[in-house]
Amino acid sequence: MLLTAFACVLLLAVLLSSLAHRTILSTAALFLVAGFVLGDGVLGVVSITPTDPLVSTLAELALFAVLFTDGMRVGWHDLRSAWRLPGRALGWGLPLTLAVTALGAHYLVGLGWIESLLVGAILAPTDPVFAAALVGNERVPPRLRQLLNVESGVNDGLALPFVILFLAMAAGSGDLHLGELGLELALGVLIGVAIPWLAIKLVQTRWFAASTLYEPLNALAIGLLVLAIAKATHGNLFLAAFCAGITVATFGQHQRESFEHFGELIAELFKLAALLVFGALITPALLGSVGWTGWLFAIGALVLARPIAIWVSFLRSGLSMREQAAVAWFGPKGFASVVYGLLVLGSGIAAAQQVFQLVAITIVASILLHSSTDIVVARGFDDEREVPAWYGRLRGRSNVSDRTAGRG
């Protein structure tokens, strides 16, 4: 039944995609709401529980695909050429957002410090999908669009080690072995760099060459090989995926370009499927059980944590107040946060349900608020607005009168 539901909602999303690009309708919001309506809390068409193996498997594959394609957007050359403003957002904004969010979770909701830091790490990454109208508007300053694109492409991977560390700590001090955790992370980085580099070097030799038909499958094969070896060696899958994407973008520009459209479609399918499952796990009982403090935390995470972090990070940066306000507001909690929340839900830690509830309502609020305001904010940068014909004629007469008076 889940496959049938996903196929139906996907078809509906395709049919409405043109309308979605022109209005506040959001494809992500459509899948989230569809999951909520079809889930056990409302219609009961899609019956799924947090312990269902499908949840963890889908979350794992979806996050791997998204981190791989995210990394492929930002090779080392891109980072070096456009690091000044994104560096502020990532170097200062990300940890500050994490810290302010953690303070809210601890003092408003009463979570322990480790669990609060875990919530902060989960909600720190941003997603440009819900700011598509802003990023895609050519009248928005290029530096602002570049800032949002680079930041959202990198911060998923940067937040990941913090999520892993705090999740391991929340599982219990007796189960936390920093040496093993460090080895897992290091092995993931090594796999993510070495395998793509070797594969690209093989293609560049005179003995091998990919046909035009199979070129898009080159990067896909690299990604699948990274996934398989990381699972076999117990390296961290997600760091391996992110590093592999960056390595392909750095050393295989041709592979990057040929895979770009194909890879985005694959990642998008995984994203939408995970959003449907995520929505099905959110029930009216869950939304009501968080209490007013939980909802206050969610609103604070959106309207205080990110804006405060961005304001501090961009002091004396040269950005105008309007640009800073746009960056501060468009820190939507997107797909990475969804999957991190699903991973926590299936982790078995004592506070898993409470952490998931806070993450869930914050993401729901973010999707609804950010996906419905991106067009409005983007139009604020539209300086060349159309004016009525009578105003143009009146302005023309005024200019003629001014020139005549000047000659007199």
TrEMBL record:
Subcellular location: Cell membrane
Listed transmembrane segments: 44-68, 89-110, 116-136, 157-175, 181-200, 212-230, 236-253, 265-286, 292-314, 326-345
Domain Cation/H+ exchanger transmembrane: 12-373
Keywords carried by this UniProt record: Antiport, Cell membrane, Ion transport, Membrane, Transmembrane, Transmembrane helix, Transport
Membrane topology: Multi-pass membrane protein
Keyword NAD belongs to the record: no
One Pfam match: Na_H_Exchanger
GO biological process: proton transmembrane transport
A GO molecular-function descriptor: antiporter activity
A single Gene Ontology CC term: plasma membrane
Entry protein name: Peptidase
Organism: Sphaerisporangium rufum
